[in-house]
Design brief:
Elements: E1 7-8, E2 29-35, E3 38-42, H1 47-52, E4 56-57, H2 67-86, H3 129-142, H4 145-156, E5 160-166, E6 169-178, E7 183-189, E8 198-203, E9 218-220, E10 226-228
Antiparallel strand pairs: 1-2, 2-3, 2-4, 5-6, 6-7, 7-8, 9-10
């Protein structure tokens, strides 16, 4: 976890909030933000408004919510329940003493349920790199990720975008969206389109990326959508 820097207004310097323009009182906290690469100070009352404008608190990267993780947990739970329902019922225990003596035959063992094999729709996987890139961009634009990218771009400007198949993983395409201060790495599995595009890593230094990841071959539009470079 990164340490959040908190500034207070010195006694001999009058600091002002860059959102509401109000001069901060002595001892009042001033929170540092970035807006298009420039440093801004925000008072306690204007933090929410600054975030809505796309300003980024210094030392933090916009975090994705855990909606996807929650869905995975729910799917996992449903899978366990379904397997439990499909599990063959154990044979009943032997009849209690005295039952056979009374002339009652034990009931026949329960017949195991036949498991129903799930039918999956098999999609044709694009073979050329260009088709794979186009499919990954289309899936990215259908996801919630463009909204996050657009919010960061309002503060840091237009990012560089790299979309390439992953070496050694023929069905996986990697998408990298990077600024000077932040970057995101996404993956899309062409063999499992229903899983969608997922974020697999993020950082704050461009040096953490490979050479090809910093070489753009796509563009980011104003609304966060991606497009192949012409």
């Amino acid at each position: 976890m990164s340490t959040r820097e908190i500034r207070t207004a010195p006694a001999d310097v009058d600091l002002g909030c860059d959102v509401c323009g109000r001069t901060l009182l002595r001892g009042e906290r001033a929170h540092p933000f970035l807006e298009r690469g420039e440093h801004r100070l925000v008072c306690e009352l204007c933090i929410t408004r600054a975030q809505q404008e796309g300003w980024i608190r210094e030392g933090t990267a916009p975090a994705y919510d855990e909606a996807g993780a929650g869905s995975d947990r729910r799917r996992s739970l449903f899978g366990r329940l379904r397997r439990r329902r499909e599990r063959p019922a154990p044979q009943e225990q032997a009849a209690a003493p005295g039952r056979e003596a009374a002339g009652q035959a034990p009931p026949p063992p329960a017949r195991p349920r036949t498991r129903v094999r799930e039918m999956r729709h098999v999609r044709a996987i694009p073979t050329s790199a260009g088709q794979q890139i186009a499919s990954a961009i289309e899936a990215f634009n259908r996801s919630e990720h463009p909204r996050t990218v657009a919010g960061v771009a309002r503060s840091l400007g237009v990012p560089i975008v790299s979309v390439r198949p992953v070496a050694g993983r023929p069905n996986v395409v990697q998408l990298v969206v990077a600024w000077e201060l932040y970057w995101y790495r996404y993956e899309f599995d062409l063999a499992d389109e229903d899983a969608g595009v997922r974020v697999v890593d993020q950082g704050q230094e461009l040096d953490e990326l490979g050479d090809q990841e910093r070489e753009p071959n796509a563009v980011c539009l104003e609304n966060g959508l991606l497009a192949a470079a012409g």
